[in-house]
Amino acid sequence: MKSLKEMINPLSTSFISQCKTLVGADNVIFDPERLRVYECDALAALRALPLMVVLPETVEQVQSLLRLCHQHNVPIVARGAGTGLAGGALPVVNGIVLGLSKMHHILKIDSHNRTAQVQPGVRNLAISEAAKPYGLYYAPDPSSQIACTIGGNIAENSGGVHCLKYGLTVHNVLQIKLVTIEGELLTLGGNGLDASGYDLLAIAIGSEGLLGIVVEATVRLLPIQPCTQVLLAAFNSIEQAGNAVAAIIAGRLVPAGLELMDNAAIRVTDAFVHANYPLDAEAILLCELDGLSEQVEADVAKATAILQANGAVEIRTAKDEKERKLFWAGRKAAFPAVGRISADYYCMDGTIPRKHLAKVLTQINQYANDLGLKVVNVFHAGDGNLHPLILYDASQPGEYERAEQLGGQILELCVAVGGSITGEHGVGVEKLNQMCVQFSTAELQQFERLKTAFDSKNLLNPGKVIPSLHRCAEFGQMHIHNGQLPFPELERF
Amino acid sequence: MQDQDLTLELQAQVQQAIESHTPLQIIGGNSKAFYGAPTSATTPLKLSGHQGIVEYEPSELVVTVRSGTPLNELNKVLAEQGQMLAFEPPVFSDTATIGGTIACGFSGPRRPYAGGARDFVLGCTILNGKAEHCRFGGQVMKNVAGFDVSRLMVGALGQLGVLLDLSLRVMPIPEAEITLYHSLASYGQALELVQRWQGQPWPLSALAYHDNHLRMRLSGSDDAIRSVAKKLGGEIDKDGDRFWHGLNVQQLDFFKGIENLWRISIAPATPMLDIPGRWLLDWGGAQRWLKSTATAEQIHKQTQAQGGYAICFRGAEKTDWLRLEPNLLALHKKIRLAFDPYQLLNSHRFSPEL
Ligand SMILES: Cc1cc2nc3c(=O)[nH]c(=O)nc-3n(C[C@H](O)[C@H](O)[C@H](O)COP(=O)(O)OP(=O)(O)OC[C@H]3O[C@@H](n4cnc5c(N)ncnc54)[C@H](O)[C@@H]3O)c2cc1C
User: Is A324 left (phi over 0), alpha (psi -120 to 50) or beta?
Assistant: First the structure.
């Protein structure tokens, strides 16, 4: 018979006391009030209280904790800052949360090799701040960069406004230390530009906490560019803006950033930050060019000509740094701005080949109309990464479900035009169903086997990223029963 | 270039190999057979007929190509549109295929500044060791759905799957390029200068030290290059293109001679290692070529002590070609089995154990 205590909390007393011995009682959280902090990430619609939270301070503690969990079959969910948008850090049934917030030290800035060696809980922006005195910075810049951690960035392969030119996390991390579920410490990647054997660094980046716990990272730092200029171009149609994006890329330019906002986004953000955006434009493009001043000058001239040729009705070039910041202010404030006009919003993250931008945006608005919902679009147009923000009000019965349905439709549309269900936010629990649309049975099973190679007991973030085949079968059926199978021509099982 | 899709035939051959327990040797253009340890398999699986551009839209900056397509042909098609493979893969012979290049994970002098082969792979279709046709990644720049299996294929020497199609990110060919050189007498001096330059926001696209010459290539707009060239000083090397090509395909005089050719991958500012032989510094110091008769033990030991690793790129040193920590080797074996449970694909290409 289980004791009352065990029924309330299935972790054994021996497990709990060993955890306390390992990390100190202060770093083990049980108190329900304090546990609430960990019940969700930024996908706040999904919540679950963890049984316990542990906050290790050293690599050795992480190793011992994982060994202990392995021995006691206790599932573990790693957590950085909890800014993830796909429920990746959502606690799991009968599991504990391993918070990395106390491993937050920058270990070394190596200005000669242009690298930073950091602990996983270091905030993204803190790296660039520490590198600044050396004229260097860390390029990937998710909008959440003041809060999100490098461990979370690695787990999600996060991007940002500038990844069109400077790449995603995977392009900017040289080495990580990963603790396996068996408590072994692995070094993946090298201190040069590659490592021997399989590229395990590539597979660890973006693995959403399923393969191991990142306990240290060495990231690449780049020289700060001396000159940056941004153009703001207004268009009378989304289609023209979309074509202008393709033309810029085809015109041999590689902008540092190339962002698109639709009319809804222009209005919402301008009302919030007074960026002086052209309110009547159907779309604006923000095109950032950086490099040496001579290069930027040449690129600005080229970009201006291309934008004009593609129907821009107005093109502004930032006069100074202040105006450049103002151009970006609206884009950067998109989330809070939308938060002001809508009780709730749901941020999607599909990618598509750029040539389909206009078609897809029109179709998204059509879907939204059909469901009586509104969508605001601000996104990384240069790399075809859409972020439709679906506005809804959770207090209205049925609205959340409709928002979720619209989100699903959007992602399936992305797959249908040759894109992906997630560009940078990850699958987590949010997009499990859409994984069934993007991947075949054989592919999902291949993921499963790869996961098993690292974690044979399936204790690291179980239930995330890889849907069970059973789930996919049910999802497929549900879609057909409702008569809504959006793309009957797609192969599925 | 032919346009020929052999997917079904190749799948049938892998299926057949499973049924008859016959290990397969995957062969593209056979131009890189010198690299790695020889596979124990003797039955060839020929990819060179599986050719052609599947899809190429320059404005998407993506090309999807069959793995048996000759690298030369692919480069030509891209150049016609003013684009290129920015990782500048070496074309060791006319037969070299894009599939072999990706399987080996080779990148040229532009690598530190533009990215390596793995950075440009967006997606792939493969036959895994169960003869299943699988597609990972896609044709879009950003894609984090599921594990990044397509990048895992880069440098795996075919052990994790037969590469069928590859989607690669391509980049515009720079408007202008120029090569400058400085005469410097010592490696120490060169390393110091190299690190100083690399810390500057200059449009570098190659940086190498060889034969008392420190050469740098600059890429970008005409004006930008000229202004940097002024700041950097040094002489213009009119034969610059020839030098970078010779370095890339290992036809400089440096590469001649019977000594083993070692490739050392290391943090770029690492001081010179104390190993006898001739050195050539590439990738701004992060890739160092060594022609040497020193023992494998000596070379591995010195390199590992500095946090780098060494590989015998060409030469007789084939036993224990791949050195891995025991825990990493164990993981490699498990991953191998996850993709190729019957161990049919390019067995022992890395070492007797892998
Ligand atoms: C306002 C806002 C804007 C955003 N903008 C962007 C953007 O522009 N681009 C973008 O890519 N993302 C963006 N995001 C999403 C989010 O910030 C990123 O996914 C970020 O990388 C998450 O980091 P985190 O530290 O908060 O991780 P968490 O949310 O705590 O965790 C994310 C995942 O990583 C795992 N994990 C965390 N740490 C580790 C570790 N050390 N080892 C192993 N696994 C670990 C977790 O288990 C979970 O699966 C945004 C989010 C918000 C709220």
Answer: alpha
ipTM > 0.95 (yes/no): yes
Residues enclosing ligand 1, CB less than 6 A? A 41-42, 77-85, 88-89, 100, 120, 142-144, 148-149, 151-153, 155-156, 158-160, 208-209, 213-214, 335, 424-425, 461
Q: What is the CATH number of domain A227-336?
A: 3.30.70.2190
Quote the crossing angle between the two packed helices A321-332 and A263-273, to the nearest 10°.
120
What secondary structure letter does DSSP report for A462? T
| Domains within chain B, CATH numbers bracketed | 3-172+332-339 (3.30.465.10), 174-249 (3.30.70), 255-317 (3.30.70)
Q: pTM for this structure?
A: 0.96
**Hey, which bits of B117-221 come out as E strands?**
121-127, 133-137, 162-169, 171-172, 176-183, 204-210, 213-220
Which pLDDT tens digits describe chain A residue by residue (493 residues)? Answer: 556 555 557 899 999 999 999 999 999 999 999 999 999 999 999 999 999 999 999 999 999 999 999 999 999 999 999 999 999 999 998 999 999 999 999 999 999 999 999 999 999 999 999 999 999 999 999 999 999 999 999 999 999 999 999 999 999 999 999 999 999 999 999 999 999 999 999 999 999 999 999 999 999 999 999 999 999 999 999 999 999 999 999 898 999 999 999 999 999 999 999 999 999 999 999 999 999 999 999 999 999 999 999 999 999 999 999 999 999 999 988 888 998 999 999 999 999 999 899 899 999 999 999 999 999 999 999 999 999 999 999 999 999 999 999 999 999 999 999 999 999 999 999 999 999 999 999 999 999 999 999 999 999 999 999 999 999 999 987 654 333 444 444 433 3
Per the CB < 8 A criterion, the answer to whether B354 and B336 are in contact is: yes
Indicate the fold that domain A342-492 takes in CATH.
Alpha-Beta Plaits (3.30.70)
Q: Hey, which CATH number is domain A106-223, 3.30.465.10, 3.40.50.970, 3.40.50.300, 3.90.1070.10?
A: 3.30.465.10
Cα Rg of chain A (Å, integer): 23
Distance from CA of B254 to the nearest CA of A (A): 22
Domain A4-99: give its CATH architecture. Answer: 2-Layer Sandwich (3.30)
